[in-house]
Amino acid sequence: MSADLENTLYLELKDGRVVIEMRPDLAPNHVARIKELAREGFYDGIVFHRVIDGFMAQTGDPKGNGTGGSGQNLSAEFSGEAHIEGTCSMARAAHPDSADSQFFIMFAPAPHLDSQYSIWGQVVEGMEHVHNIKKGDGMMNGSVADPDKIVSLKVAADVQ
Fold first, then answer.
1. Distance between CA atoms of 57 and 103, rounded to whole angstroms?
2. Which pTM does this prediction carry?
3. pLDDT digits (tens, 9 = 90+) for 43-58
4. CA 101, CA 37: separation in Å to the nearest integer?
5. How far apart are CA 23 and CA 103, in angstroms?
6. Between the N and C ends of the chain, which has fewer C-beta atoms within 10 Å?
7. Coil/strand/helix, residue 155
């Protein structure tokens, strides 16, 4: 378990806690923004609107359909890190500097995403709970009917 509670997130899902070690060394601005949003309670109750079995689970859209965000775009912070199981990375539109509040957690390695998306964290505990997130329709780009929600997302340093 990470000793740096300020850069650790507790993602509470229906099946239990997921511990995410944040990577400010890779994406300092994305880490700072996610912590800011988590501390505001922004992510609490937000659905996993796009979940593709064997690929990833995407969340962070207050509209719940992939078109929303917090209203603050972030400049890309691409790195040489690999997208592997448990990697947490920012979702974005076509423009590299369009990431906002949406992010995804990898179910499996996806080398085609490397150096194209800002990686900001890694699941270090509870990956089995991530794998239990309700999957979407493969024919509908992973769109999920009656999707699972984030119960809460908190910075570990703030949790008693």
1. 8
2. 0.96
3. 999 999 999 999 999 9
4. 8
5. 14
6. C
7. strand
